[in-house]
Amino acid sequence: MYNILLGSDNKQSLRMLRHLAAVLSLFGFTLISIFFYYNGLYSVELSTLNAVLIFFWSGVLCFTAILRSGFNKRFSDPSLTKPQILWSTLFLLSIAYMLNDWRGLVLISYFAMLSFGFFKLRFREFLSVGLFVILGYVLVILYIFVYEPERINIKLELIQLLVFTGTVFIMLYTGSAINRLRERSKKQYADLQAALEVNKRLATTDELTGLYNRRYFMEKLAQQKALSERNNSDFVIFYCDLDHFKNINDTFGHHTGDIVLQKFSEILKSSIREIDYAARFGGEEFVGLLVDTDLENAKKVTERIRSSLDAFNFNDIAPSLHSTVSIGMANFKEFNTIQETLMSADNRMYHAKNTGRNKVVYSDEGDTEIRRLI
To answer: CATH says 214-370 is which class?
Structure first.
């Protein structure tokens, strides 16, 4: 029932809820208007009052249909706050015209209508709806004074107009102040969210390469261990160390070294799946986690990483620049502890460096390596 009435979209539901609250208020105002008629306060026939009520409520139902259908999303203000206030103001001014007395009392209802715009209307919009009702009331007074002078006490009406105008401007100031406070709060919230996002990124990623940092990687590794033990699945850890990286820094400069690190990070990220993880452990040392992967598939991934860097053309950075990587890897099921798996992958990476570099080592047995698997 709730979804039928308000819809499933949260923003649309809120707009409908506010609209229905306004409709309920206007229904109460309509009952008061009918009460005025049956107490002899109008100068019109019942048929005229009925025509005004039917015309007004037809407009209200049109607003309801537009909001419920979602057509309102095409407008700059999907809540249609200003049009609804202006339509309600026309109804109020119509009732004020039909009354013989008590016009000032009816105008008090306008402040309830205006309050619905506190959280949506900017100052210029507040000013326009305020001037609309003031000008409308002036025209009502002038028309009655010119054409039906017996129905008006002009001095009383001018006093009421003065008081009403002053109160409207106070409401405009209050409403615009509330709107400014709301907009400031929204901006502060957006800034806070952006700052939290930056802090989160800084807390989990390496600033230079955009890869995860050591702390975050170790958290994910612990989670993967628990998941693998529960699902009886395997995963592979691999260590990467860029060969002769100190020579690159010494020969071409640290800026060029940073570019090499960034290029390798791009190769690393593009070579693994979205569910996998890659991190920079420090300096030129990187580590990866291949989720739900056996050793055979991991060999293909790591060889792709190695061969991609070996073939990468750095001529646009430095003509004689060339970089390679040594990789060691180990699967969790072989050791059943994170510490031993990490140590084994690290040792195999050093074994790759000590036996010629630019290779992948995946076993402790002899000099097992991958050179051109793919």
So the answer is: alpha beta
Mind listing the pLDDT tens digit for each residue in 135-171? 999 999 999 999 988 888 888 888 888 988 888 888 8
pLDDT tens-digit readout, 276-295 = 999 999 889 999 999 999 88
User: Cα–Cα distance between 289 and 214 in angstroms, integer?
Assistant: 12
Structural domain boundaries in the chain = 2-197, 214-370
Closest to 106 measured CA to CA, from 94, 116, 119? 94
Query: Tokens 């790591």 — which residue?
Result: 302
Q: Which helix (H) or strand (E) holds 287?
A: strand 285-290
Q: Cβ distance 362 to 346 under 8 Å?
A: no
Backbone angles phi, psi at 157, to 5 degrees: -65, -40
Mean pLDDT of all residues in 345-356? 93
Instruction: Report CA-CA distances (Å) from 136 to 29, 156, 174, 251, 359.
Output: 19, 17, 22, 81, 85
- b/e sequence 52-72, b meaning 16+ C-beta within 10 Å: bbeebeeebeebeebbbeeeb
For the chain, how many helices (H) and strands (E)? 13, 6
Per-residue buried b or exposed e for 149-188, using 16+ beta carbons within 10 Å of the residue's own CB = eeebeeeebeebbeebbeebeebbeebbebbeeeeeeeee
Is residue 84 within 8 Å of 116, Cβ to Cβ? yes
